[in-house]
Amino acid sequence: MDKFTTLTGVAAPLPMRNVDTDMIIPKQFLKTIKRTGLGKSLFYEMRFDEEGNEVPDFVLNKPAYRKAQILVTGENFGCGSSREHAPWALMDFGIRCIIAPDFADIFYNNCFQNGILPIKLPQAEIDKLMDDASRGSNATLTVDLEAQEIRGPDGGVIKFDIDPFRKHCLLNGLDNIGLTLEKTAHIEAHEQKASMARPWH
To answer: Is the overall model pTM greater than 0.85, yes or no?
Structure first.
C-alpha cells in the first residue's frame, strides 16, 4: 500500500449528502477484482450521459478539477453497500484524501486499507474548505498527516483528529497484510517451535 505523508493537490468540491457507493462506482463495474482501471468509471452516472458523453457541469469534468487529489464533500459519504471497489475507484482516479463531516463506517475503514485518508471535520470547517475548493485550479490544499493539519490557499490552518494506530498505518503504508508481514519473524519462530513440539503434524 502507498504511504500517505503529505499531500498537496487540487481539492474538488462535491457539496452532496449521502453519496452512496453505487454513485461512487455503479454496480455494472464490479465484475473486476483488480484495483486498477476503475478510475474511468468513478461517479460514472454523474460524469457521463446515456450516450457516454461527459457532463460538462460535473465537477471532475471541469478542466480545473480533472486531476483533483482531494475531495471535499457532505455528510454520510460512502453509505450504501460495502463494496471495496469504491475506494479502489477513487484511488485509481487519483483521489488520496476525502474531507467530510462524517462517513459510512465500512467505507471509512476501507479507505484506510487502500491508502486513502478520510478526514472528519465539523460542518463549519467543511464550509470553509468547500469555499477554498470552489476556486478552481487555485483550490490547492496541503494535507499533512504527521502534523494533522490542512493548510489552505490563503495560509489558514485546520487541525484534524485521527486514531493514532490508523495514522501509523497510513504513514508507513501498512494494510492488514503489511501489518501481518511485520510479524514474520515471530510467526516463523512460533511455527518452528510448534513443529518441534508436535512433529507428527
So the answer is: yes
